[in-house]
Amino acid sequence: MSDQNQKEISIVKQEYNITVYTENQIGLLGRIAIIFTRRKINIESLNTSPSEIESIHRFNIVITETEDVVRKVTRQIEKQVEVLKVYYNTNEDIIWQEMALYKVPTDIIAEKALVERLLRENGARAVVIRKDYTVFETTGHRSETDALIIALQPFGLIEFVRSARISIIKDSDGFNRKLREFERIEPGQDVIENEFLNSRDKVFSM
Amino acid sequence: MDLIMETAQQEVLSEQKTNPGIEMKGSAALLEGLLAEGVDTIFGYPGGAIMPIYDALYDYMDKIKHILVRHEQGGIHAGQGYARSSGKVGVVFATSGPGATNLVTGLADAQIDSTPLVCITGQVFAHLLGTDAFQEIDIINITSPITKWNYQITDATEIPEILAKAFYIARSGRPGPVLIDITKNAQLQKFNFEGYKPCAHIRSYRPKPIVRKEYITEAAALINSAKKPFVLWGQGVLLGRAEEEFKAFIEKTGIPSAWTILGAGAIPSDHPLNVGMLGMHGNYGPNVLTNECDVLIAIGMRFDDRVTGRLDKYAKQAKVIHLDIDPAEIDKNVQSTVPVWGDCKETLPLLMDACEAKQHPEWIEKFRSFEREEHAEVIDNELFPTTEELTMAEVIQVLNELTKGEAIIVSDVGQHQMIACRYGKFNNTRSNITSGGLGTMGFALPAAIGAKFGALDRTVVAVIGDGGIQMNIQELGTIMQCGIDVKIIVLNNQFLGMVRQWQELFQEKRYSFVDITSPDYIKVAEAYGIPGSSVSKREDLRTALQTMLDTNGSYFLEVMVMKENNVFPMVPQGCSVSEIRLK
């Protein structure tokens, strides 16, 4: 690829998936978030939850930016003391899913829609079926979860929620093994949370 | 994924004989920790939420010096001055709420200028967090973007370990400020203190990147084949304590070298390979020839916009070698051809070994020729003015002569700062202390106090404008109380000079709120028990400076200088470094 081509590609904005492995520390979410807000970059999706190792958290952050900006931002994230490792990937580099829940009135659904067909067409399943409402669940790309909103809208959609994106990096051989090995050599520490807030009335202070 | 880091050997270190421990309060444990870290000076200001720590300090008065400042901002700038002159970690105490928020400017300044600090703030009782209690402020979130690390302690048992981490993080790798917020209950809480173990490793933190040999080889090949190599160095050389390595490298390779204002002094001002200062008000040659060199070697500097001017016209013809300890700095502003990640204390000797001994007399002569031009057009007029009024540059020049370039010059922000950096003579490292990245007016007076405490055997001269001195003038009270020896020179042009200069050059002399009046400084100084004098005539200047230097203790010298003088050369904003103007 010529230099010219490379330049052109690097100025194209596209979705990037940033994967961050961190210590489980209070305040770290804020430290990571301000790296984006300082540069006026909108975080489109953010998932944070424990990894397979309890003391190590994994963030999945989605932003739309040029590769140049994403590279600089990831280096700033990696610079944080409690960040272990950062990766960034395009959508082509990952397998990703978002989960969505749909609450609809059971009577209308039962009466008007061919529920089974709807579920099959959208790869959805019923999580709860009660007399008053039913909750469907589906996972997939944004377009797929969107499709079911459209399908259910005429039937009195009551509530909808979509999760942040989670993604698996295609080229991630040995991630789990290395993470476990790392934890084995140097175990993480427990988070110390405030244990005093609930005993406010019992404490005398001035 | 290369998560696995060098397994620490410090486990052995901590395996000392099991200490049964002694019961003590969190506040006392904090002071034990500070002692163990070798802290000799603390700059601080007490208040409600930090009272238990101050109570403990009462018992440590003979072991640790505490300097009572007049404002927490003065305290943190003093801590910065101390860190910059001594190379050690500056320690600052402040109370919660306003005490803590008054640290913000200093933290931001220390963060952008990579100054190692550990700031301890008091905080309300843990059970009051989030209740808008008296003097409660969320200082952790306020300071997240401007600290290298921060942490809130709510339990005394955390104190030794967190303090050890704080010092390790502040001083290792690319240094920076750390803030530890300690709730009052944790300060008061008694616990079993089992001794203080210094921290040497944090599993998620890699202070310096691993040096990659292949980049050293590539960089050396570029340097060896270069016809017009040019070195830019910054504070990284000082922070890495790599002055000797740096000097050896440029002397072997014979490369002309220019400095950023925070890098000044790494080699003496009159070193034959020192070609001057970079940036907006830097020297003529280094700026113009940045756009003519074939290999640009940046060492421990971050290509600040005040150094580079317009980026798309910056050194486009050159191959760029960038040595930096912070991987986030590589390719941040200027795309490197060869990135040399690592601590320059390690990378410079490796690079030097791979480089051929060379000399570049013709190329250096180009710098000298630009220097002659700058002398004729700018410097001579400043040093030997035909006007009756004094110039800032001649004050600095006489100061250089009297101190023989051995003094630490602490400057504030503005015209006088650029003059102090441009004309100051620095024989030694850690001699130019100034607010570089943040440009904090009011920095110099408190920083000079701290700088003196960090280098008691050196002469410390604060050079301040008439604007900046009025921003933290209350610290004269600190000088009065602790009796420290700081020489203060106020270069008074009766204007906020740098803003006025821009208004003159770019806004048709629409002087909008730059006309600033001053009190009678000599009376002010006298009220604080500091002797002083004011001069405005050339014939009095040398004697006045000599008196200042000869005075036992602090001295306040006001020099009335030319009202509407401009700092040149100048790279106008939005222009390329090669478009630098001599007038």
TrEMBL record, chain A:
One of its GO terms (cellular component) is cytosol. GO terms for biological process: isoleucine biosynthetic process; L-valine biosynthetic process. Gene3D superfamilies: 3.30.70.260, ACT-like. Chain A, domain 2 (3.30.70.1150). Keywords: Amino-acid biosynthesis, Branched-chain amino acid biosynthesis, Transferase. Its EC number is 2.2.1.6. Residues 17-91 form the ACT domain. It catalyses: 2 pyruvate + H(+) = (2S)-2-acetolactate + CO2. It comes from the Bacteria. Pathway: Amino-acid biosynthesis; L-isoleucine biosynthesis; L-isoleucine from 2-oxobutanoate: step 1/4; Amino-acid biosynthesis; L-valine biosynthesis; L-valine from pyruvate: step 1/4. GO terms for molecular function: acetolactate synthase activity; acetolactate synthase regulator activity. Belongs to the acetolactate synthase small subunit family. This is acetolactate synthase. It comes from Arcticibacter svalbardensis MN12-7.
